Amino acid sequence: MGDIDPIGHDSCVESLTSWFDYLSLESFLGYGSFGYVFQGVSGQVNLSAVKIIFTDALGNLVGDETDKLRLSREYKLMRGKKHDNLVEILKATDTPFTEEDVNILRNIRCLQNNEDVLDQLYSLSRRAHRKTQIPTLCIQMELCGKTLRHWLTRNNEVDNPELHPIRKRIVLDMYEGLKYLHNNKIMHRDFRPENIMFSFSPTGEEFAFPVKVGDFGLCRKVHDEHTVTKTLTCFVGSVTYRAPETSLSDYSIPADLYSFGLVSWEVLQLIKQKDTRSMFHMLVQDSKKSLVKRADWWFRKWKDMIIKLTKRLVKDRIRGHDEIWLIDGHKQEFTVESHEQCSSVKDFLEPGSSKSCTIDNATLHKALIGGTGHRLKNIKCYDAMQIDGDDHSTENLDAINLVDNSTKRVNEHDISVDFEAK
């Protein structure tokens, strides 16, 4: 059996015990098949989670070796990635533990009343004495609060209007985290409520914002068409949330977006966990679109977005972030990030409302016809429109002229246009 995939030379020069010069393990958070998790403290207030995995304990089977590669990949792919809506991986080391290292861990104060863990560490200490070293992987990461699954279990029984803005914030936060991964050519491959975390709160708040995407053990790089793509593992991730095409080895970003569509539906429509598999199956496999019950407080056009995100066939599905737009009807400003979004500005205007829309120059140029008039090419937004209660619109045929008829502000990076629905 080969060694665990190395993390990198920059992180292998120190051991976990060398971290104790600035980090103390203050409390024990739990353990499982992948090892032990502690709450670490550096200085007075800097909190983190420290995961310690003795990789020999995972076994000697092929599947166990895959687990080792997953654990290593979790750090390697996410090293240097920082975003408000991602659990940050701070540092890692795969320097093996010596007998002395194991004994230092055994003597940590927060473990002294945990007989099960002390017995396990005693066995590891004896093994280290015989073998000299124990293969180990240690990862320090941002400390988080409870998972989205905890929140949904508590709050999806009864509809509380006071939680509507919270639900929208959850969807927006987890989307921004996933979008950042995709912009960095990383697939998550296991996007589900159990892997979406609330922030840690020093005041003890259970569900603090921002919400963060975590658990990167199944992440893989997305290769472009000019790069040889390694075969992807079939059937990875939770069976409830994984896209149909993951039964094959050729899948990409749309598989993550499919999972996001299901989770966003679960959050916004208060779908109970016991009903998720049956409802997801009826929407995806049976095309029962009527199951998606739009509410007035949802993001504009989000019922249609859920249906498009969760199409069974990739060719029928939303395939990229250019086609996704989370617009809060209560906000007066929004940003257009793609030509596709530019073409659907009118869909997000409400009767009698006005919005300030910022469009970057590159996107705007794709949407404009050349010439002195600079008229919008495919943008279905007009200087007078009516939108009825069924979201159908009637438009006059005089397109907005950016130079003459609308308010615009120009700087080096973008143009801001004010649209008004009359």
Explain what this protein looks like in three dimensions.
- By secondary structure, the chain is an alpha+beta fold.
- The chain folds into 3 domains: 9-142, Phosphorylase Kinase, domain 1 (2-Layer Sandwich), CATH 3.30.200; 145-323, Transferase(Phosphotransferase) domain 1 (Transferase(Phosphotransferase), domain 1); 333-420, no CATH class.
- 29% of the residues lie in helices and 21% in strands.
- It contains 11 helices and 18 strands.
- The protein has helices at residues 16-19, 62-78, 99-106, 115-131, 148-155, 164-183, 253-268, 273-284, 302-309, 339-342, 361-367; strands spanning 24-32, 35-42, 46-54, 89-93, 97-98, 133-134, 136-142, 144-147, 186-187, 196-199, 208-213, 220-221, 333-336, 354-360, 385-387, 393-395, 407-410, 414-420.
- The chain has a 5-stranded antiparallel beta sheet, with helices on one face. A 4-stranded mixed beta sheet has the order 13-14-18-17. A 3-stranded antiparallel beta sheet has the order 8-10-11.
- A hairpin with a 3-residue loop joins strand 2 (35-42) and strand 3.
- Helix 3 packs antiparallel against helix 4 (115-131), helix 6 runs antiparallel to helix 7 (253-268) and helix 7 packs across helix 9.
- The longest helix has 20 residues, at 164-183.
- The radius of gyration is 25 Å and the shape is elongated.
- Mean pLDDT is 75; it is low at 1-7, 9-13, 59-65, 225-229 and 369-416.
